[in-house]
Amino acid sequence: MSNGATPTRDALDDKVNRLFAGKVVRKDLVRKVKVGANVPVFVLEFLLGKYCASSDEVAIQMGLQVVNDTLANNYIRSDESMKAQAKVKDQGRHAFIDKVKVRLVDSDFWAEVTNFGHKNVHVPEHYVREYERLVMGGVWAQVDMRFEYDEESRGKNPFWIDKLTPIQIATFDLEEYRRVRREFTTDEWLDLIMRSMGYEPKEMSRRLKLLFLVRLIPLAERNYNLVELGPRGTGKSYVVQEVSPYSALLTGGTTVANLFGHMTGRQKGMVQIWDVVGFDEVADLQKMPKEVITTMKTYCESGTFQRGQEAVAGDASIAMFGNTNQPVDVMVQTGHLFAPMPDIIRDDMAFIDRLHFYLPGWEIPKMRNDMFTDHYGFVVDYLAEALREMRKHNYTEIIDRHFSLGTHLNARDRKAVRKTVSGLMKILFPHGEVGRDELVELLEFAMEGRRRVKEQLKKMGSFEYYHTSFSYTSQETGEERFVGVPEQGGRDLISTDPLAPGTVYSAGVTSDGTVGLYRLEVSVSSGTGKLKSAGGSGGAMKESIQRAFSFLQAKKTELAIARDLDVSDLHVEVIDLLGNRVEAELGVAFFVAAYSAMRKAPVSPALLILGDMSVQGNIKPLRSLTEPLQVAKDNGAKRALIPIENKRNFLDVSADIVEHVDPIFYGDPKTAAMKILGGL
Asked: Does residue 190 register a pLDDT over 80?
């Protein structure tokens, strides 16, 4: 938009100006002013909405002048705090816009007025009671300040707040909002919401628009848990930071008391006061006390948590944002999509299972100038107020009008899908009127976002999350449809290519059905017959390898490797393919790998070796076959070497696995080696 020309208006601009007069603002004005003033968008638009909410160009220019004057005279830049303090002293009083935080010192309330640069400003107590947010993170407000010598502190704290007006819309009429929504088509409304967020929807795909909408769900839906991981510069935390005065963005660590309130109950926590609590850099959670994560886990499940003797409830949504450093295809192929999370969360499957939607941040383009709109959108605090008002309503049952959810969705999956649909309904169809096809779109989108969470849990090798074939059935036609995730690349961790001698795959399973998948690599160097660990093994795993090595030493003549073994050292490295640190006993796999390395004969490809052994070479069967074979099949295994004692367990294995993975049973280590080393 060069030479200061007025942007051309389109039909949607005319319509919103007619139907929402005074509640919309031209979004390029916001950017014009924003450049010169580091003020949150909702503060700017509060002023623009007051002076520029018009479609008459002359009125807009005059209004813009007022806004700029207001910002020049009444907004304090942080480097001008002394000048502002001097102004209040000279004039005796001054009104300005700033962020006010209040804290309790001994038994007095003191306000910190951020850019004004004074931490001990007298504040009338009734404001603290009226606006709880003052004590939790602070409020942007119009502040009327006076100067008066304070006897008690001998003039040290001479500033007094006379009047404090938070910057929020005074009244919001939900019925009017819903009524006027009926005048718009779904597409028009979707574009209006995009423009209200500051983006221009013309060039966007339908899917991209919906992804942007998901960022608003935490503002409209109570206790919604959203995670978005993606590249830098895609505006992940913009909504939480700029769009709503009811959300708080945490950067850096925090404490349990700050998030969930003090034990004494004297001070409320953030989750009770804000509508959304966002974590800007998820990686920072690593530095937080473990208790923060455990309390948050309970909170994300039920919206309640324990403080002292009390069970306390909050309805803030939790939004977590983090940066991915690798391209998504690499993440999908080599690990799982929660890899950028700090391990305090990444390794806590129960925590991850509580997330309702994983927004694929890699699909959102980096913010460029041409993505921002010059058209009209809602003044953001009007939109924020609308979304906040919608929090009181519930659309979680709306799916049941037309659809039932498939068997693979457990209780948590259903809750997540319903909450996402409900949130999207509130944003797109606040009047509650939605067509069947439009509902399908929301439902499939919601299922995809939840399935992405569950697919990662499945990749971590946990058997309880194996049902990821999400589907829904139409009540009218009885037709069942399945919903996938676009980036669902394969994870063939077990290579079907020929392997180097000494390399084998193995797996172990814990009592709760979590599977560990491993690649063992044994290499030979000249030495004196010792076993050296090159890393990756410890505890029970190391002991099982040691037992197998002792058996190898004892049987070296029988195995025809005595001459070679006496002048060699074996180096063993264990690579944890799923990264979930399952304690597995891999004796037989090591024995076969060592034999393969000594004989320089590769093991057949796409093979999984199961079982452990005693020092005498007696085989120890596995607790269960179903889980390890399922994980092996999903990761490319075609054959499995299985202890004969597990043969009866093979009857429990599903037909799907039997079809893909051929069993080879063995009764002793030597037979195991012979069967798969090409009959050496």
From this structure: yes
